[in-house]
Amino acid sequence: MGDKNTEAIARNEHWAQLTPEQQLADLDSRLGKDIGAKKQRAKIQSKIINPQVEVQRESKAKKRGKNK
C-alpha cells in the first residue's frame, strides 16, 4: 500500500509542476483531444483565461496564515 501512496505523491508533484497549457496537453495525449475529464479541463482553462485569480487566491491564503 505504501508503494501506491509514494507513486501517487510523485504523480501529483509532477502534475503540480506543469503549466496549465502543459496539463491540457498531457490530458489530450492520455485521453484524446477534448475527450473526458470535462471538469478538470474547465478548471485548467479558467486558469489559462484568468491567471490573476490564482495569484490573488494564493496571496489571500498567505495573509490568512493558512500556508504555514
Please tell me about this protein's structure.
This protein has one domain. The protein is built from four helices and no strands. Helices cover 79% and strands 0% of the residues. The protein is an all-alpha fold and 68 residues long. The protein starts with a helix and ends with a helix.
Indicate the topology:
Elements: H1 2-17, H2 20-31, H3 38-49, H4 51-64
Assign an overall shape: flat
> How confident overall, as mean pLDDT?
81
**Cα Rg:** 15 Å
H-E string: HHHH
Low-confidence stretches: none
Label the structural class: mainly alpha
What is the CA-CA span between the terminal residues?
29 Å
Largest sheet: none
**Number of E-state strands:** 0
Strand content: under 5%
* Total helical elements: 4
The percent range for helix content is over 70%
Number of domains: 1
